[in-house]
């Protein structure tokens, strides 16, 4: 008997894989939603990359409904996303479009999944960015997309959002996550200021179980110094 049912949107990425692994080790049933399958998950829903926003949503909603067979989930965790730099002088719309697809499409589809399949008192967690609380001139498209995720989180955490009763909507705002790719591209950085993926997965687990939950609609910055991560709630 599974100890819970979890949906990880972006379950093939670095943080998503860490979440899938964590919840599988905790004896949970896990569905991964991504462009590519994660062989550790119980169910894989592959998003058609070239489909429209609405087509992607219809596909994911239908596939998850089939997989759940009438059951509800305890958490919908959206850690899909990506990064692109760039300012207004070059390819702004192109970069913004890419960031919107990766962060905003996935987050809104995750919200729809939560409205349909989340248990009362369940968790929907999205992924924002601390940088997007201010101007991001060197990565405008990224900042726009993450700011939209922040707004979505606050809306989901408000009355009449359409989510189940007593559910928690929250967004994490990492500064830098300790991933293989980040270490590859920033080999001389101070890794003691990077947030471990295992910390984030454990945080989602804690919130899913109702422990130390922030207020509904919170934006939670993950500030790591000397290998210790502090939560700063906005």
UniProtKB/TrEMBL annotation:
EC number: 1.5.1.34
GO annotation terms (biological process): L-phenylalanine catabolic process; tetrahydrobiopterin biosynthetic process
Gene Ontology molecular function, alphabetical: 6,7-dihydropteridine reductase activity; NADH binding; NADPH binding
Record carries keyword NADP: yes
CDD domains according to UniProt: DHPR_SDR_c_like
InterPro entries to which the protein is assigned, alphabetical: SDR_fam (IPR002347)
Top EC class, one word: oxidoreductase
Catalytic reaction list: 5,6,7,8-tetrahydropteridine + NAD(+) = 6,7-dihydropteridine + NADH + H(+); 5,6,7,8-tetrahydropteridine + NADP(+) = 6,7-dihydropteridine + NADPH + H(+)
GO CC terms: cytoplasm
Keywords: NADP, Oxidoreductase, Tetrahydrobiopterin biosynthesis
The organism's place on the tree of life at top rank: Eukaryota
Subunit description: Homodimer.
Similarity annotation: Belongs to the short-chain dehydrogenases/reductases (SDR) family.
Functional note: Catalyzes the conversion of quinonoid dihydrobiopterin into tetrahydrobiopterin.
Protein's UniProt name: Dihydropteridine reductase
């Amino acid at each position: 008997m599974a100890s819970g049912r979890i949906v990880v949107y972006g379950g093939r990425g670095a943080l998503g894989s860490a979440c899938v692994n964590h919840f599988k080790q905790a004896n949970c049933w896990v569905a991964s939603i991504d462009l590519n399958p994660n062989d550790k998950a119980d169910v894989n829903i592959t998003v058609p990359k070239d489909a429209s926003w609405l087509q992607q949503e219809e596909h994911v909603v239908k596939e998850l409904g089939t997989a759940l067979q009438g059951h509800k989930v305890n958490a919908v965790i959206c850690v899909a996303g990506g990064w692109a730099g760039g300012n207004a002088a070059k390819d702004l719309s192109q970069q913004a479009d890419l960031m919107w697809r990766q962060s905003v499409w996935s987050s809104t589809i995750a919200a729809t999944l939560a409205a349909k399949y989340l248990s009362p008192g369940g968790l929907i967690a999205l992924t924002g960015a601390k940088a997007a609380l201010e101007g991001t001139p060197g990565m405008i498209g990224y900042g726009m997309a993450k700011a939209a995720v922040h707004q979505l989180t606050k809306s989901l955490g408000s009355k009449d959002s359409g989510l189940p009763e007593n559910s928690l909507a929250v967004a994490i705002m990492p500064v830098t996550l300790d991933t293989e790719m980040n270490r590859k591209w920033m080999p001389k950085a101070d890794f003691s200021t990077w947030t471990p993926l295992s910390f984030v997965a454990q945080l989602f687990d804690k919130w899913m179980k109702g422990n130390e939950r922030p207020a509904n609609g919170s934006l939670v910055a993950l500030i790591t110094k000397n290998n210790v991560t502090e939560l700063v709630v906005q």
